[in-house]
Specification:
This protein is of the alpha/beta class. It is built from 23 helices and 12 strands. It has a 5-stranded parallel beta sheet with strand order 3-2-6-9-10, sandwiched between helices. It has a 4-stranded antiparallel beta sheet with strand order 5-4-7-8, with helices on one face. The protein has a 3-stranded mixed beta sheet with strand order 1-11-12, with no helix packed on it. The radius of gyration is 28 Å and the shape is elongated. Residues about 400-405 and about 655-658 have low confidence and may be disordered.
Length: about 650
């Protein structure tokens, strides 16, 4: 393969200023979404800019040398992007080992590994990491999904460009093909997106985000041959673009601060429109003819922010995750300003001592006084980071108490009859969300209570009844998997036809809901009626699909760590709300002759306890661990046996005080 010297494009300070605008929008959105609810669109501006610059760089090389050095290009991208990523991922591994709740350490290890291998977007797409707020604790490398898409683009796009160039060197034809591919990708996004559902599939997918990079590529390809056009004509075009760029940038500014975070519009063609508009300020910033937009974007503070934009993007999200209200004695705007300051400080250090030296002088510049050790350190850094991530994936979620384990330890005795078996197998379906899912996974196996056989009928972050949960008045979008499960869980119940369907009252009921009758605010008569109707729905469906008996276990108290990114956590941690839901559910159960296993009294006597029988109760403040699961199961299972036999469970809730 031909190898030749790579040349950078002419430096345009306004392009760095544009990077500064994009990273500032993302940073503000992440530290406080209320300040810039549409700030996440800064990533889309980055995508279009990357597509434009990479295409311009590759075609410039092709025009100069007659070919594109693939290996040289890929190595230059790795040298540009990997060192800072490895540094940040290494810091995340250390911080996760010290401060992440035990149940999240292994997933964080896999997240870091996927980030280092540039497949993070697919991990988050196929996992349960919703970009717009999930009850699970956020991954400290969740933001690397966009870097993964870009790196996948860098890997594949040069091959596409070489193939196109082999067919035609006509820049208009080549640009038209790239634009058609962009339109196909955008159409695929519109096709896959379902309004009202979680947008994770179209947000994280390389196939559904490629159009933004390809729009930039199409424009970069179209402008690549402009050097041969007359200077006067080129100057006129630059002036027209410069004038049009201002309203285009204004649209972005308005979207940053006005577009609702949960709007359907971006995924129904809005992002394509924004990508097309983004090409105007990009062309104005990159043009040879000076203009007012170039002057503004070249302001020194904005240019310097753009210079550190890559390092700042890498650092800001881990800083937000780890520097949270649970770790520091401040919150609100003061905490947001501290997070911004720390992120900028770390970005400056990384740019000064890692990113710029390696980019300009190679790995030997990492430790200027010792070039040989510098190269050695650079060569082993990536393998060490990968090994560190793999080591963290093996971290046990039960070896230490989580940070939220306060208030001492509950003592849970096995319910009488735990070892007594009749020889008759009793089947139970544990029905609900991720809480019964964690018990299904961690109940201890068939030897714990051998005659009670549990099966999970669960969906993470999903309720088995209709209704739209509201947080701060905003609807919470559910995943397509949740929608499918809500429609199918009854059929799954019929496959088991259990002796008992045990429904875990979900913590979502502490939130407001919207149903056919309107918005039901927590604590109102309408919300209480909604709780009762949800229980009616689950009971009726369970019994109609083969369950012989139906029972409830009520809500326990929780102290989920508050990372400042999910307002629902405050509601879940509110014991008064939990008591109210339990009281409504218990009153409903008495009316319908449904037994209630009183988990609240067992685990929350005298308040919250982070341990049970001396071991951590929860992995993350809400889900059972491999050690606590069997303890809870030995208490729970004999009561399920009693219910299956028509007896009252030992801990039947009776009256729950509000």
């Amino acid at each position: 393969m031909v190898s030749h010297q790579h040349r950078s494009l002419p430096y345009r300070p306004a392009l760095d200023g544009l990077r500064g605008v994009a990273v500032a929008a993302v940073l503000i959105y992440h530290v406080n979404g209320d300040w810039a609810p549409g700030g996440w669109l800064g990533v889309d501006l980055f995508f279009v800019l990357s597509g434009y610059l990479i295409t311009s760089l590759l075609l410039s090389e092709q025009l100069r040398w007659g070919s594109i050095d693939l290996i040289g290009f890929w190595l230059s991208r790795a040298r540009r992007l990997l060192p800072s990523l490895v540094v940040v991922c290494g810091a995340v591994l250390v911080a996760a080992s010290l401060w992440t709740v035990p149940g999240r350490r292994s997933p964080v290890g896999w997240d870091v590994l996927s980030a280092l291998l540039y497949v993070a977007n697919w991990r988050f797409l196929l996992g349960d990491e919703s970009y717009f707020g999930n009850l699970a604790l956020p991954s400290p490398v969740r933001h690397t999904w966009s870097l993964s898409i870009e790196e996948q683009y860098y890997l594949l796009f040069p091959l596409l460009l070489i193939g196109l160039s082999a067919i035609t060197r006509n820049r208009i034809v080549r640009s038209a093909v790239l634009l058609l591919l962009a339109l196909a990708s955008a159409a695929w996004m519109v096709h896959l997106y379902v309004p009202g559902q979680d947008p994770g599939r179209v947000y994280y997918g390389t196939d559904t985000r490629a159009f933004e990079l390809l729009v930039g590529a199409a424009v970069g390809s179209l402008m690549a041959g402009r050097a041969a056009t007359a200077r006067r004509r080129r100057s006129t075009v630059d002036r027209v673009i410069g004038l049009a760029a201002w309203p285009a940038l204004a649209v972005f500014a308005v979207a940053f601060f006005v577009l609702p975070e949960k709007s359907d519009l971006p995924f129904q063609g809005g992002l394509l429109v924004l990508a097309l508009l983004a090409t105007l300020p990009i062309l104005a910033a990159a043009g040879r003819t000076p203009g007012s937009l170039q002057s503004v974007l070249s302001l020194e503070w904005l240019r310097r922010l753009g210079l550190i934009s890559y390092s700042l993007y890498l650092w800001h999200w881990p800083v937000i995750v780890f520097l949270n209200p649970a770790q520091v004695p401040i919150d609100g705007a003061a905490l947001s300003l501290v997070q911004i300051a720390v992120s900028v400080g770390l970005a400056v250090i990384t740019y000064r001592y890692v990113e710029r030296p390696i980019r300009t002088r190679g790995f030997r510049a990492l430790i200027p006084a010792r070039p040989q050790p510098s190269v050695a350190v650079a060569r082993v850094a990536m393998p060490v980071a990968v090994l560190g991530a793999l080591a963290l994936t093996q971290s046990s979620g039960s070896s230490a108490a989580p940070a939220s384990a306060v208030g001492g330890s509950s003592h849970l005795e096995p319910t009488a009859g735990v070892s007594a078996t009749s020889g008759v197998k009793r089947s139970v379906v544990l029905l609900g969300n991720s809480v019964p899912a964690s018990l299904t996974q961690n109940h201890g196996g068939d030897t714990t209570v051998p005659d009670v056989v549990p099966t999970g009928n669960v969906s993470l972050g999903c309720d088995p009844f209709p209704g739209e949960k509201l947080i701060d008045g905003d609807p919470v979008k559910v995943s397509p998997d949740c929608v499918e499960w809500q429609q199918e869980w009854g059929k799954a119940m019929r496959l088991v036809s259990p002796d008992v369907a045990l429904y875990f009252v979900p913590q979502t009921l502490v939130s407001d809901f919207k149903n056919d009758e309107g918005v039901q605010r927590f604590g109102t008569a309408g919300h209480d009626a909604f709780i009762r109707s949800s229980l009616d729905h689950v009971r009726t469906t369970s019994l109609a699909h083969g369950a012989k008996r139906f029972a409830l276990t009520n809500l326990a108290c929780h102290r989920m760590p508050d990372f400042g990114v999910n307002k629902e956590i405050d509601l879940i941690n509110d014991d008064e709300r939990v008591r109210h839901v339990n009281a409504v559910a218990t009153a409903w159960a008495r009316t319908h002759g449904v037994p209630v296993i009183d988990t609240f009294s067992a685990l929350c006597k005298d308040g919250y306890h982070g341990e049970v029988n001396g071991v951590p109760l929860y992995q993350d403040g809400i889900h059972y661990t491999p050690r606590s699961g069997p303890i809870y199961w030995r208490w729970l299972a004999p009561q399920i046996r009693d219910i299956a036999s028509g007896k009252k469970p030992a801990s039947d809730a009776g009256t729950i005080s509000r």
